[in-house]
Amino acid sequence: MAKRLIKLTFPKDLIKKPITFQMAKKFDVMPNIRRAKITEEIGEIMLELEGADQNLDKGVAYLKKEGVIVEPIVGDIIE
Amino acid sequence: MSCVKGLKCRECGRPYPKEALFVCEYCFGPLEVDYDYDRIKQVLTREAISARPKNLWRYRELLPIDGDPTDGLNSGFTPLIRARNLEKALGVRELYIKDDSVSHPTLSFKDRVVAVALSKAKEFGFDTVACASTGNLANSVACQSAIAGLKRYIFIPADLEAGKIIGTLIYNPTLVAVEGNYDEVNRLCSEVASKYNWAFVNINIRPYYAEGSKTYGYEILEQLGWKAPRHIVVPCAGGSLITKIWKSIREFEKLGLIEKAHTKVYAAQAAGCAPIVTAIKENSEIIKPVKPKTIAKSLAIGNPADGIYAAATARDSGGGGEDVSDDEIVEAIKLLAQTEGIFTETAGGVTLGAAKKLIENGKIPKDESIVVSITGNGLKTQEAVADKIGKPIRIKPNIASFEEHVRRH
Ligand SMILES: Cc1ncc(COP(=O)(O)O)c(C=O)c1O
Ligand SMILES: [Zn+2]
Fold first, then answer.
1. Pick from B26, B195, B286: CB nearest A37
2. Which helix (H) or strand (E) holds A3?
């Protein structure tokens, strides 16, 4: 299992969609939200994703494809 | 003697020990150095500071090292210049340039942060230092780690200016040119940093490193005669410098070294990479990352680590932000050279260009004191102006040719 600490930025039109939840279900990734901020225009979530390495890759790719900006907070933590 | 209590999360306030840590494990907020100000107040007086050597370590109680400083002993205390010609050109009453284009040894304010980062990295026992850089940091890490005898790995975007690349290679580091923009370099470096036990000055040493920028602010306050200016314009990339200048003012107030200050702080960015200024203008508490496209490569960070704090600094101080086009950057570089004799790099063009706009549109009043932060040297970014400043008049080595081409009668 690996952990990824990332920041997700949601543009306005994605704020209301349950993308993070869908990603988690689809790729068997466990999200653990630590901090979030939201305005009318933009949303931001700092979270930890835990799962098998290739599932994390797929999950992150899915988020990006949906239009979410994904930035690492630190490098991967392999346990 | 150490005046550092430890680290503290900027978001949730949780305390952490003095180690090479940089992110809160609970809320993922950035960690900051936590000082014992009561203790500092007992020793750090105007007299004590004035009596010390003129380098950035004269404020050492406010810097995060435990032992004696070992690096950057000739860095800092750059000129604060009363810019009388520029005052006339801009129609303002009192304008100063804080000139880090002549910082020793690598001609940018990054010598300050690297001095602190390397002193700290050695205290921690690291033998290898590394950084992700838009250029100036690369120069300074390569240089100062050569002096310190440390191994060094420098990561830059592959398309940097020749001056920044040569100004790094000359110190013989391992220089890695990554095919991507700074944000991609930074992403790669956060991976590298989690695998290798190196002192990444702007990753795992960041809380300590960033404190070095405060000395730019302390010097302004001291050089103004222990007074704060009413307005200060600061270039932003990652957004650290502007927050640390703000912190320097608050700390000097707290220590009674200056009276209560009413300084307004303004962020300056290039229009082609202005995530911080956009957040300020839109009054947003979230930074929207952008893909940079500007000649101001030293400021081309699309996802600024301290962006949100930089925007908050500008807002809370009552200041603001402004962005400038590439043409305005070049015009401002020329203006500064032709009025004050200072040849700054693109970042300086951004800062002066933004200051000019803020003055013209009335955001900065013409009759109050203004400091423009010049943080880098123009010889490093010559391609930005090379074909915009004319050419030498070419003649034969005789008087006839001179009179024919230069002094036509
Ligand atoms: C010349 C110059 N000025 C200003 C900055 C901005 O500093 P910060 O990243 O702390 O906002 C940089 C950053 O690389 C720089 O090179
Ligand atoms: Zn925290």
1. B286
2. strand A2-11
